[in-house]
Amino acid sequence: MHLGIGGDLLDHSQSMLAEHDLSAAELRYLADRLTESLQEVLRVAESRGARLPSVE
Predict the structure, then answer these.
(1) Number of CB atoms found within 10 A of residue 28's CB
(2) For residue range 5-56, what is the model confidence (pLDDT) as tens digits?
(3) What confidence score (pLDDT) does residue 6 get?
(4) What SS3 class is residue 56?
(5) What is the pTM of this model?
(6) CA–CA separation, 54 vs 11, rounded Å?
(7) What gap in Å lies between CA 27 and CA 8, rounded to an integer?
(8) Which residues contact 23 (CB under 8 A, 6 or more apart)?
(9) 8, 39, 48, 55: least buried by Cβ within 10 Å?
């Protein structure tokens, strides 16, 4: 199970790729949305990682 907008996007992209012969425009749109989502995931991960105490 996926949660949130990122999960919804992942589910939608998997469905699109499995069920359709996508046009170049559809693939581009999907790639753009997935890139935006990954950028957000990385931003959150870096933010959370910066708050973790150092382990030496």
Answers:
(1) 11
(2) 778 888 888 888 888 788 999 999 989 988 988 898 889 888 888 777 777 7
(3) 76
(4) coil
(5) 0.68
(6) 35
(7) 17
(8) none
(9) 55
